[in-house]
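Backbone-to-sequence.
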């Protein structure tokens, strides 16, 4: 039998990490973990607790509330996906709102939060057999993961893909706004003091500016085939 492995997919915002991670997890029958969704859930919780309502939001007031957070992942049969629950509320859609997107980088900078969420991710992945995407997975959360992929793409192509997605969802937003938002998030991710977005030395970089999803997946499946005698294609 194949030995289960951990596949870490890190990279820039809107670089298509989650599309790849979901497809790989389906193919291997592995668990898919969207670590960005975990950070987004904490940002939603902070918004619900009105933490950002004063001009100077107070981290010290927020940290003690962290213990009230109970996150669970449950399989949604109808939509064929895993949904995330915060204190028993399905927040799968809420965490994708612009309000949450605008606050999540602030949340991701707080060491106590990163520590707690890192432990949570390690616990979910303790039996391996997972595909997990994020920013610090290969460099920090699972530094010994058997396969590390780092995804990048030009700012223009990432902005265009995200713009198309948002338009499909009926959001009123211009291409320029999407691009500026991505530039800001890239900067926050790269310049964060703790565990910033970073390509680890042993990860394999894919620049998908001119690559189709199929080509990326074929390349990744070949890499998986070389690990632990996995034969999947
Ligand atoms: O992948 P995403 O856009 O849903 O992630 C939301 C935010 O969470 C992103 O701005 C950076 C942060 N994040 C992080 O700091 N570390 C991770 N492992 C995943 C996400």
């Amino acid at each position: 039998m194949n030995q289960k492995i951990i596949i870490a997919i890190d990279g820039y915002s809107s670089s298509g990490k989650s599309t790849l991670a979901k497809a790989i997890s389906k193919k291997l029958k592995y668990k898919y973990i969207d670590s960005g969704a975990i950070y987004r859930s904490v940002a939603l919780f902070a918004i619900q607790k009105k933490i950002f309502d004063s001009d100077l939001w107070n981290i010290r007031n927020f940290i003690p509330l962290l213990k009230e957070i109970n996150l669970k992942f449950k399989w949604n049969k109808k939509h064929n996906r895993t949904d995330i629950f915060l204190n028993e509320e399905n927040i799968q859609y809420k965490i994708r709102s612009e309000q949450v997107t605008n606050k999540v980088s602030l949340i991701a900078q707080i060491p106590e939060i990163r520590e707690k969420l890192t432990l949570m991710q390690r616990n979910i992945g303790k039996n391996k057999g997972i595909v997990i995407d994020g920013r610090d997975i290969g460099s920090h959360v699972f530094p010994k993961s058997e396969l590390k992929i780092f995804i990048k793409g030009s700012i223009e192509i990432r902005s265009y893909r995200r713009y198309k997605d948002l338009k499909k969802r009926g959001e009123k937003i211009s291409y320029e706004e999407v691009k500026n938002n991505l530039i800001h998030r890239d900067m926050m991710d790269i310049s964060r003091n703790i565990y910033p977005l970073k390509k680890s030395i042993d990860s394999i970089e894919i620049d998908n500016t001119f690559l189709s999803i199929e080509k990326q997946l074929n390349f990744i499946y070949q890499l998986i085939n070389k690990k632990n005698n996995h034969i999947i294609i």
